[in-house]
């Protein structure tokens, strides 16, 4: 037995039990228009996010390097086992009714005695090769039947299965794994017995061996896992998540071996969970939402230490959950980005302070902030001028002043500035973005100009906050260091028809029909490699390739036409606009933590959620001067819950400065209702810096609804009480 297997007392007990005589008597998006190739701020290569398969999901066996395509060793001859699912179920029924479990016991004892026997029982053809990713060769129906029945058998049968698995895992293996070995791992990982902590030692060793398989083996397992039923797939994912949570926070101190002696448990389980995440990602549609891979337990660990480990140890074997970002919830990722940004703010403020002191200049506390002064009537131009003029302060804490208004910015004015600025930027009359009705999102306008600095402003603002839907693409998820030269070229990735589907679904559908058309493409569609696009009311033509206006689209070249057209729409036609946006975005967000995010998560962090759950807000609300049973408070919630969605958004904007829900939901708003002892003739007052609304003691529901509606419908501008 190799030393690692004897790393705790549990292992020794298990090994001894293997060699005791067997007792037989009854007892597993969003590609964007471009990807930017950068390195981390320190100039080193960042550690791989190895289980995020957005870059691997199109991997096929033909693209693997020669060393992993080497022929597998010949599988041993497998004994013939002829028991069918029906026969097994009949055996189970007889055993349940008669109490005689001998035949069932013999089946389980033999089947799980070795990898060869596992294949003999569950392989559809005992000595068939089944060497493809498309077919594992496993009789899934029989596996499900055997496992579904296992937990209802007597304890001695269940123990014999575990002993057989221990025997199989402890055998010494030489050379690469065979396909039958992979099949055995694929079957064993589905065993329902691993839900109990008493079997965690065995489960951990199984996971360790699966995690240690080669990339080629993992490639096969990923494609086999995606063919599991949705129910079984979810069960296995939840079991792995529970295993990681229990290992981190066991219910009883002595329930599991000491963590110091079993430090490999969590890395092994997380790597195997990564295979399930990969299988989910390559499935179309996904088997389960990506959010179901989040482990909420990790919100209670020192995730900043995990982040620093990931940053500091590069591509070494030092484990960090940040190498597997699919397991981290958006709440954790947001916290990492915020803390990393705060550290950058503090660092920049400290540098400014030291610079002033070293030059013997008077220190002004304003140098610790990015101070923006804007006029409401010239909001966009003033904001652009201020941000350009104070570019070196972009990482400092933002503080906004509206000229001519007495409000002090404790957070509320900043939110107001964001909301008004983004509304103006995304207004269709302004021409920077085009609203796509079919996809209900904004996309870059393709008009050409000499100055794209306003797109840079949008990028700067978008990282900090935004309240419009702008598509977030994987190209924002590259190592987030903005190139020093704003004119530096950025790399371009291949855009697909699936990407276009997210922005222009009708056009994508039409191009899909072109690809699948069985008739005469040239005569029926009458297309050339020239496309037309409207820019500021003028229709312009563009050749997708040299001489494109004279090249007809045919059945033979239609794939090339579609690819060039998609690339033109999502890359080339808006390259300068997006490049400016990118530079602006990363001038503020120079954080490696951005690599942890999926495109959907970027959109959530930047835009917030448009889904309002006022019942959740009611449950999380705090009170000052009132309690939740007071008549004014009860009337308030009766009115708010009955409001249409538009008025609910206005209320949220009135109280918080934004009509979107932050990551973490309504509970993260710390919403408070306070009592003010004034006449009921007054309208409600809000403090957006503190997400607080102040209500006079209105006597009736009708009076409260009238005053509240007036207040939330006229909610721009700030003053001092």
Automatic annotation (TrEMBL):
Endpoints of the signal sequence: 1-24
GO biological process: protein polyubiquitination
GO molecular function: ubiquitin protein ligase activity
One Pfam family of this chain: HECT
Superkingdom per UniProt: Eukaryota
Enzyme kind, highest EC tier: transferase
Active site location: 689
Coiled-coil residue windows: none
Reaction(s) the record says it catalyses: S-ubiquitinyl-[E2 ubiquitin-conjugating enzyme]-L-cysteine + [acceptor protein]-L-lysine = [E2 ubiquitin-conjugating enzyme]-L-cysteine + N(6)-ubiquitinyl-[acceptor protein]-L-lysine
Enzyme Commission number(s): 2.3.2.26
CDD domains the record matches: HECTc (cd00078)
Residue ranges of every copy of the HECT domain listed in the record: 390-721
Keyword Cytoplasm: no
Key words of the record: Signal, Transferase, Ubl conjugation pathway
Record keyword Nucleotidyltransferase present: no
Protein name as catalogued: HECT-type E3 ubiquitin transferase
Natural source organism: Sparus aurata (Gilthead sea bream)
């Amino acid at each position: 037995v190799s030393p690692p297997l004897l790393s705790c007392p549990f292992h020794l007990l298990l090994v001894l039990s293997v060699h005791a005589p067997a007792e037989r008597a009854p007892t597993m998006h969003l590609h964007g228009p471009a990807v930017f190739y950068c390195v981390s701020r320190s100039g080193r290569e960042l550690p791989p996010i190895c289980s995020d398969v957005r870059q691997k999901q199109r991997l096929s066996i033909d693209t693997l390097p020669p060393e992993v395509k080497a022929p597998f060793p010949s599988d041993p001859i497998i004994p013939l086992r002829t028991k069918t699912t029906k026969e097994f179920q009949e055996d189970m029924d007889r055993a349940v009714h008669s109490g005689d479990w001998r035949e069932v016991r013999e089946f389980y004892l033999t089947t799980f005695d070795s990898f060869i026997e596992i294949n003999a029982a569950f392989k559809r053809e005992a000595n068939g090769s089944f060497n493809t990713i498309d077919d594992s060769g496993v009789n899934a129906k029989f596996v499900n039947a055997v496992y579904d029945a296992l937990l209802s058998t007597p304890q001695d049968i269940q123990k014999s299965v575990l002993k057989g698995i221990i025997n199989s895992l402890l055998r010494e293996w030489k050379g690469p794994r065979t396909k039958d070995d992979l099949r055995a791992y694929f079957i064993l990982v589905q065993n329902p017995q691993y839900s109990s902590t008493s079997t965690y030692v065995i489960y951990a060793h199984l996971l360790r061996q699966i995690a240690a398989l080669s990339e080629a083996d993992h490639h096969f397992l990923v494609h086999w896992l995606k063919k599991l039923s949705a129910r079984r797939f979810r069960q296995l994912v939840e079991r792995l998540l529970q295993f990681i949570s229990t290992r981190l926070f066991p219910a009883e101190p002595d329930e599991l071996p000491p963590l110091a002696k079993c430090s490999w448990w969590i890395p092994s389980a997380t790597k195997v969970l990564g295979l399930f995440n990969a299988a989910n990602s390559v499935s179309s549609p996904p088997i389960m939402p990506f959010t179901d891979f989040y482990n909420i337990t990790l919100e209670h660990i020192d995730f900043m230490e995990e982040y620093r480990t990931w940053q500091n140890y590069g591509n070494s074997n030092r484990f960090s959950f940040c190498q597997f970002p699919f397991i981290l919830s958006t709440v954790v990722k947001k916290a990492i980005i915020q803390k990393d940004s705060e550290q950058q703010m503090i660092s920049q403020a400290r540098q400014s302070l030291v610079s002033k002191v070293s030059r013997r200049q008077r220190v002004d506390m304003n140098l610790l902030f990015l101070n923006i002064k804007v006029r409401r009537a010239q909001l966009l131009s003033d904001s652009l001028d201020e941000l350009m003029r104070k570019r070196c302060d972009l990482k400092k804490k933002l503080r906004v002043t509206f000229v001519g208004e007495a409000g002090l910015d404790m957070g509320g004015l900043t939110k107001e500035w964001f909301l008004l600025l983004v509304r103006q930027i995304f207004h269709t009359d302004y021409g920077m973005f085009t609203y796509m009705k079919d996809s209900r999102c904004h996309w870059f306008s393709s008009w050409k100009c000499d100055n794209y600095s306003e797109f840079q402003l949008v990028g700067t603002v978008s990282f900090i906050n935004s309240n419009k839907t702008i598509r977030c693409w994987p190209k924002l998820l590259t190592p987030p260091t903005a190139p020093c030269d704003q004119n530096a070229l950025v790399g371009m990735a291949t855009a697909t028809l699936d990407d276009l589907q997210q922005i222009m679904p009708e056009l994508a559908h039409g191009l899909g029909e072109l690809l699948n058309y069985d008739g005469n493409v040239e005569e029926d569609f009458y297309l050339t490699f020239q496309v037309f696009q409207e820019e500021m009311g003028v229709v312009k033509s563009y050749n997708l390739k040299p001489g494109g206006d004279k090249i007809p689209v045919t059945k033979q070249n239609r794939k090339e036409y579609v690819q060039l057209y998609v690339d033109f729409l999502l890359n080339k036609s808006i390259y300068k606009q997006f490049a400016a946006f990118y530079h602006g975005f990363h001038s503020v967000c120079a954080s490696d933590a951005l690599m942890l995010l999926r495109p959907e998560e970027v959109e959530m962090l930047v835009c917030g959620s448009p889904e309002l759950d006022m019942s959740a807000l009611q449950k999380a609300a705090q009170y000052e001067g009132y309690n939740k049973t007071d008549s004014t408070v009860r009337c308030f919630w009766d009115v708010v819950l009955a409001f249409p969605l538009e008025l609910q958004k206005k209320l949220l904007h009135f109280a918080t400065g934004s009509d979107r829900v932050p990551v973490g939901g309504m509970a993260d708003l710390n919403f408070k209702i306070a009592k003010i002892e004034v006449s009921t003739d007054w309208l409600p007052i809000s403090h957006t810096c503190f997400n607080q609304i102040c209500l006079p003691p209105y006597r009736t529901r009708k009076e409260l609804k009238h005053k509240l509606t007036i207040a939330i419908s006229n909610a721009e501008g700030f003053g001092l009480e």
